[in-house]
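hey can u check if this looks right to u? its 367 residues, i copy pasted from the old doc so theres a chance i mangled smth
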Amino acid sequence: MARSLRARPDAPELGWLGGHRGLEATLIPPTGIDFQRLALRSLRTTELDVHAVTDPIRLGLSVPQATAILAAQRPAAVFTTGGYMAVPVLMAAAPLRIPVVMWDGNVIPGRAVRATARLAAALAVSFEATCTALAAAAPGRPCYLTGTPIRDTREVDREAARRRMDIPASERVLLVFGGSQAVRRLNTAVSGALARLVERATVVHVAGEEGYAAALAEREALPEGLRSRYRPYPFLRDEMLAALAAADLVVGRAGSSTLAEVTALGLPMIVVPYPHAGGHQRANAKVLADAGAARLVDDADFDADALLEAATLLDDPVRHLAMSAAARSLGRPGAAEAVTDVVLAAARREPLPDPAVIERRSSGRAA
């Protein structure tokens, strides 16, 4: 979203209001975006520990803190992805009459989103069902189907991506990755299936920092002629888009950004939803599975045999092509621009855009 906003001829000045215990502390300052933090910390667990007492105190302190920051800076608008961190900011923005655009990337909106959606001037979502789910929580609020803002995939060159990843053009490529806290199940499956997988395809495997050493050892245990067909990484950042563009089949979790990039690139997927966090990922994954773009495998059922079975899709060009077409039909490569249109309209106090125009914009078609 920041890149999309900055690309506009009348690019606004950007500020980031975050909290403690989050990636933003390391990711945001190098971008040049003004960065401030509230007393609040991101809420990741519900364990009965000292934070069960201190988190409500931090929340209470963060409301006047957010009010002071917004009152001093008077931003033209607030863009938020909802969640616990957004609660004090939205509570502060409402009496100051600062318009809020809230985006949510899950089929099932979280509790914080449902609780604060009524404070938003407009809602943007990745799935049509989310608008229905939020209708009762935020009656009368315009809800836009935009998809998930992602890196621009429209100019991606598959051949260039394979050259960057040093993968021959003729190879079939299986990409396996999960979130930083949800990769162990996938790593175990890759470990058990690896010797047979590399006989079928080049395997690009994002193993996470904890799993990377074991993955390297397993690579060295492969026959010398097959080692080059296993590419383990601790993580991929700038190279992630190239890895996706080079892939023929993706195995991964059902986070909103993952599904958005996979569909924008028209990639078939074996989706293994993270089983916790209220079942949000399973609901997200089911949208792709019902459309024929993905095969859904529950976390408890995903093992080496399930991974090998999934890889048989690489040997079925008819089914692969059908799933690829289904994935592409769901893709919304213009999501960032679509959400930016809504945010800038709110910031300028202009009439909000027509939802049909925004939907076409998100799909990459001319508005």
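The longest strand covers residues 34-41.
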